[in-house]
Amino acid sequence: MKFIESSKELELLTSGEVIVCGGGPAGIGAAVSAARKGVRTVLLESAGCLGGIWTSGLLSYILGDCKQHGLVTEIKDRFASFIEPDARLPKSLPSPEKVKLYLEELCLDAGVELLYNSKVCGTLMTDKFIQAVCVETPAGRRAVSGDVFIDCTGNGDVGFHAGCGFDVGNETDGSVQPMSMLAIIGGIKADECIDYVNGSEEAYQKLGNLIRGCGIEPSYSRSSIIRISDDIFMFAGNHQYGVRADDPHGVTRATVEARHEIHSQINALRSLGGIWKDIKVVATSSQIGVRDGRRLHGLYKLELDDLTSGRCFDDAVCKVRFGVDVHALTPDSNRGLTSVSRENPVQPYDIPMRALISRDCDNLMMAGRCISGSFYAHASYRVTGIAIPCGEAAGNHAAQCCITKSTVKSEMINDNNLIKENWYEQDKRKIS
What predicted TM-score, i.e. pTM, was given to this entire model? Predict the structure, then answer.
């Protein structure tokens, strides 16, 4: 059954020159960089805080930022200042609450207009040009207009509503990486359980074996507890397999199952008594962690051979050194990580600006997980330490377009700040 939604006029909620949709790592990079160039920048976020996976997802860790520079270094240094160090542990995490507060200050100090509880639900188009995005707000559906839009939603929601082409999952069979939910736990002490929280592979195995000994088989083989402070920790222990990020029923089921599994594993540990007798779940993430979403079609599509050959581009926005990180695609596999990086070692490679510019829409860019690439390429660049510089580059490019009154496809700026009018003709093989 289908229903017809009546058309109606939408009130203008706000407007800007650069409209960034999604306040995760990529969106923060895009909004801050655009605002710092002096253009009116609006950041729309569906949740009630910034940070995405860092905060709503509880993984307050910058992954894959090897030798990056710019805004990612600024953010990483502030994250480091929030960590309560323990010399015995190679990894501790900053409190997600401190991260929330800092990210708001970062954006507001740059002059970004923030709008929370504003979920993109449509676009208002003229041919291939986005005039405004439609957002669901506490006041109902409203419109936000702008000159350049940057999709940092993770799942490519803006591009989807604008009718852009996209891919999801493995090109061969459509399989997607599993989702995961994280939790904050308490009731244990770092001194007493250091053999289980030191971040080593041995610690992961010991914790997993402990849970299995209670009669529970974790859906993720690398169950882990990572310290935030001496009595607060992050817990990871689940995979939810075979769920597409654009499947409402599937995401709901995965969320329910993941939260149930977390509580089951923590309850099992508590039943052991001893150092575990007071362990408890303090909070589970308000959104399940998604690894695979829509990958919007850009003017260039990154492929696995770009990664393994260490390909460089004239329009590079950052260099990536992170491996191909594919989590087990089915529950009957190793429930851990695949060997893709060992079979196809990644050489330092560039992400080109072309992969951040929509092929199908004239004023849309993207940053984060939804940029243009193949399944295996995406498994390398999808991490937060790469999302920030991609967002920063997209924000700078979008701001420059507003300043020069040019389009995102014609205003092509390389490292020497030279405009290359015909850059998009350089590689017809991957533009088509």
Answer: 0.93
CB 338 within 8 A of CB 330: no
Whole-angstrom Cα distance, residue 165 to residue 295? 9
**Three-class secondary structure assignment of the chain:** CCCCCCCCCCCEEEECCEEEECCCHHHHHHHHHHHHCCCCEEEECCCCCCCHHHCCCCCCCCCCCCCCCCHHHHHHHHHHHHCCCCCCCCCECCCHHHHHHHHHHHHHHHCCEEECCCEEEEEEEECCEEEEEEEEECCEEEEEECCEEEECCCCCHHHHHCCCCEECCCCCCCCCCCEECEEEEECCCCCCCHHHHCCCHHHHHHHHHHHHCCCCCCCCCCCEEEEEECCEEEEECCCECCCCCCCHHHHHHHHHHHHHHHHHHHHHHHHCCHHHCCCEEEEECCCCECCCCCEECECCCECHHHHHCCCCCCCEEEEECCCCCCECCCCCCCCCECCHHHHCCCCCEEEEHHHHEECCCCCEEECCCCCCECHHHHHHHCCHHHHHHHHHHHHHHHHHHHHHCCCCCCCCECCCCCECCCHHHCCHHHHC
pLDDT of res. 333: 72
Q: Is the pLDDT of residue 422 over 60?
A: no
Q: What pLDDT, on the 0 to 100 scale, is given for residue 411?
A: 60
Q: How far is CA 333 from CA 171, 195, 220, 260, 328, in A?
A: 19, 27, 10, 22, 6
User: Would you say 44 and 153 are in contact if contact means Cβ atoms under 8 Å apart?
Assistant: no
pLDDT band at 200 (very low <50, low <70, confident <90, very high): confident
> What pLDDT does residue 68 have?
73
Q: What average pLDDT does the structure give for the chain? A: 91
The amino acid at 149: F
- Dihedral over alpha carbons 301, 303, 307, 311 (to 10 degrees): -50
The pLDDT value recorded for residue 251 is 98
Separation CA 243–CA 366 (nearest Å): 23
Sign of the Cα pseudo-torsion (137, 142, 148, 151, in order)? positive
Place of tokens 């323990």: 86
User: Which residues sit opposite 180 in a β-bridge?
Assistant: 289
pLDDT at 174 over 90: yes
* Tokens matching residue 259: 């939260």
Q: What percent of the chain has pLDDT over 90?
A: 82
Mean pLDDT value across residues 323-329: 90
Find all residues with CB under 8 Å of 317, minimum gap 6, and list them: 350, 351, 352, 353, 356, 389, 390, 393, 394
